[in-house]
Amino acid sequence: MPRSVRSIFSVTRYKGGVTSYLEVITAQSAALADEVTAVNILGRRMANTVLLIQALGGGWDRSILPDRPECCGKLASSGQKLMGQRS
């Protein structure tokens, strides 16, 4: 069961009087830790992709990069649009 679902489930159990608020806090803390880990992994993947492109002798034109990239899905969709423009 994903952490966010566990968090919602624990809140429902708390509101129903089945469990203490400690379970809610623990589930939320675990969900936050998972999100931080996911963001760290995404950042490392991006940095390693850049290093790989540079190691292979490639590069990019900064003028086609977004001024202020957004996180996660928005960045990926922007990158796909940019790649489509170059073709």
What does this structure look like?
By secondary structure, the chain is mainly alpha-helical. It has helices at 3-15, 21-55, 73-86.
User: What is the β-strand count?
Assistant: 0
Domain count: 2
Unreliable residue stretches: 74-87
Structural class estimated from helices and strands: mainly alpha
Distance between the termini: 41 Å
| Main beta-sheet annotation | none
Sequence of secondary-structure elements: HHH
Strand content: under 5%
Radius of gyration based on Cα positions: 20 Å
Number of discrete helical segments: 3
| Share of helical residues | over 70%
The average pLDDT value, as a whole number, equals: 79
Shape: elongated
Protein traits:
single chain; 87 residues; mainly alpha; 2 domains; elongated
Quick recap:
The chain has 87 residues and is mainly α.
What topology does this entry show?
Layout (H helix, E strand, L loop, with lengths): L2 H13 L5 H35 L17 H14 L1
